[in-house]
């Protein structure tokens, strides 16, 4: 079990030896229970369709299939005949809703929202069709995410009430909507398409987005009310990028995925094509989110936490990380050549209610 080292005063790094990895994983076996094909370029093509993990929702060409893992029954969503392909999918944190992004004829993008769980239906409860931007129709949607926080800038709101989509093409942009009301909350014009977007699980007014060449944290804040004679805004909030991290620019990484860590503490894990994992802070932690309403004039400042240099061990160093997903106090890393690595946050014996965790301390992860 290897503790993290530090590769510089500003760039801590965790670098496990192959011996430590072999010792930590001795006696562990992985059994494949189910295997499903999916579109190569479709992010999250297979998702659990309920909180119990008994159903899978899977994109199959232009259709969405619901598969029961125990009984092996398969049903399909009632799609419109205009649908050409599914381009992105996402489930809400509670597994109550599923968003399916589609390309329809003629050259139109839409989002269908399905209800999951005990009241699941193969027909959407909402279809968002009029996704026009300021300069024309929204292009092909590459990523989608539900909000999961119960507040936005200190104001209470329902979990999963917001939906964000990122599109590609000449008018590439992020659009955040109240999907139940089909109202646009905010938008941001992009220079390149994003492969992953997500909401801060502590505050729905903060989002993250990554592409091969960039990682950014976005913040939304209320727009001033239009005065008499001024053109009315289509959105209620403006969206802007927060300060970028110099350390990530120094590493010149190519990003393949990212995820907010659990339990929610305002930190994220970034996966790179070079094989390293980066842990960064959004600048909006638990206390910041709780007191956000009193500090709206101060923008959060993202910060660098640490770097895991070889998540699969030195024997497979420089291996591209294809995806990263969190679990409580850890995350799972998937490699492009079928490697899987599990990282868990080490628990200090002195941690507890009387000895709270130092949020500025470098976290110690074990492999």
Automatic annotation (TrEMBL):
<dbReference type="InterPro" id="IPR036322">
    <property type="entry name" value="WD40_repeat_dom_sf"/>
</dbReference>
<dbReference type="InterPro" id="IPR015943">
    <property type="entry name" value="WD40/YVTN_repeat-like_dom_sf"/>
</dbReference>
<protein>
    <submittedName>
        <fullName>Wdr65 protein</fullName>
    </submittedName>
</protein>
<dbReference type="InterPro" id="IPR052993">
    <property type="entry name" value="CFA-57"/>
</dbReference>
């Amino acid at each position: 079990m290897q503790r993290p080292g530090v590769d510089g005063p500003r760039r801590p790094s965790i670098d496990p030896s192959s011996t430590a990895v072999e010792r930590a994983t001795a006696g562990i076996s992985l059994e494949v229970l189910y295997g499903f094909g999916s579109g190569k370029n479709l992010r999250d093509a297979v998702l659990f369709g309920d909180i119990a993990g008994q159903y899978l929702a899977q994109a199959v060409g232009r259709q969405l299939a619901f598969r029961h893992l125990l009984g092996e029954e398969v049903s399909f969503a009632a799609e419109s005949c205009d649908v050409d392909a599914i381009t992105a999918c996402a489930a809400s944190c509670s597994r109550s809703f599923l968003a399916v992004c589609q390309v329809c004829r003629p050259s139109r993008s839409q989002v269908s929202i399905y209800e999951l769980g005990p009241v699941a239906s193969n027909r959407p409860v909402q279809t968002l069709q009029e996704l026009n931007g300021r300069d024309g129709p929204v292009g092909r949607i590459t990523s989608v995410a539900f909000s999961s926080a119960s507040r936005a800038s200190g104001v209470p709101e329902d979990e999963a009430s917001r939906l964000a989509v990122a599109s590609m093409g000449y008018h590439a942009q992020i659009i955040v909507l109240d999907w139940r009301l089909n109202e646009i909350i905010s938008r941001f014009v992009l220079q390149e398409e994003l492969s992953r977007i997500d909401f801060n699980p502590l505050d729905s007014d903060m989002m993250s987005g990554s592409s091969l060449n960039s990682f950014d944290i976005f913040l939304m804040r209320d727009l001033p009310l239009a005065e008499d004679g001024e053109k009315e805004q289509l959105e209620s909030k403006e969206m802007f990028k927060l300060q970028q991290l110099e350390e990530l620019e120094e590493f010149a990484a190519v990003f393949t995925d990212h995820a907010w860590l659990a339990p929610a503490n305002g930190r994220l894990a970034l996966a790179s094509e070079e094989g390293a994992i980066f842990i960064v802070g959004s600048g909006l932690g638990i206390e910041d989110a709780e007191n956000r309403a009193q500090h709206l004039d101060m923008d959060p400042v993202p910060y660098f936490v640490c770097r895991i240099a070889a998540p699969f061990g030195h024997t497979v160093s420089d291996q591209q990380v294809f995806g990263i997903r969190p679990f409580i106090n850890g995350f799972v890393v998937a490699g492009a050549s079928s490697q899987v690595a599990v990282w868990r946050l080490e628990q200090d014996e002195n941690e507890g209610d009387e000895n709270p965790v130092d949020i500025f301390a470098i976290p110690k992860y074990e492999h």
